[in-house]
Amino acid sequence: MAAGGDESPKAAGSALAGRLNYLFANMHPPGAPYTNAYVAEEISRRTEEYGGVSLTEQYLSMLRNAKRANPSPDILRALAKFFAVPVGYLMGDLSEAQAERVEEEVQFLVAMRDQRVRAIALRSVGLPPEVQDSLTTIISQFRQQMNLPSDPADPDQPAAGPGDAGGEASRGGR
User: Fold this and answer.
1) Backbone angles phi, psi at 8, to 5 degrees
2) Is 73:63 a contact under the CB 8 Å cutoff?
3) How distant, in Å, are the alpha carbons of 98, 116, 144, 153, 164 from that of 38?
4) How many other C-beta atoms lie within 10 A of the C-beta of residue 41?
5) Angstrom distance (rounded) from CA 99 to CA 118
6) What pLDDT is attached to residue 150?
7) Which residues of the chain have pLDDT under 70?
8) pLDDT single digits (tens) 92-139
9) Which residues contact 56 (CB under 8 A, 6 or more apart)?
10) CA 11 to chain centre
11) What backbone torsions phi and psi does residue 30 show, to the nearest 5 degrees?
């Protein structure tokens, strides 16, 4: 999802819009996602924290709809700080691998909002590595039986095949 330096303004705006919409959809407290109005008001109201940036709901909407493609670096820094991501993610300065890493971290934070997921993770703390590996295998087997992707961060990936009951695909990285 990273943008290259030689993109047209329209493509750059589309890339920025995609990244902003991804953050709006995923980086929010439990419950409803943030609104444009809320984000613009928080950034504009907390001038010390966000570098004195003034942002309107309408301008943020135009950025998210790719109707504006070239916001100031100050606005991008403020938005990056609000969503707790590197500013390079919004500026399109990250490589594809770096942008994917940011999105993986966002997905991890999203998963940790779920109390049941958090409880499973916390209960595994302190267990020996071989027991944690066994738990990973068991979870992979359940995901396979339910026809879920072996890697929950990649919903487009098909479920693990019969030879992958140990979840090797989900631990192998990209």
Assistant:
1) -70, 160
2) no
3) 28, 29, 40, 28, 45
4) 14
5) 25
6) 76
7) 1-13, 152-174
8) 888 899 989 999 888 888 787 777 887 888 888 999 999 999 998 998
9) 40, 44
10) 20
11) -50, 140
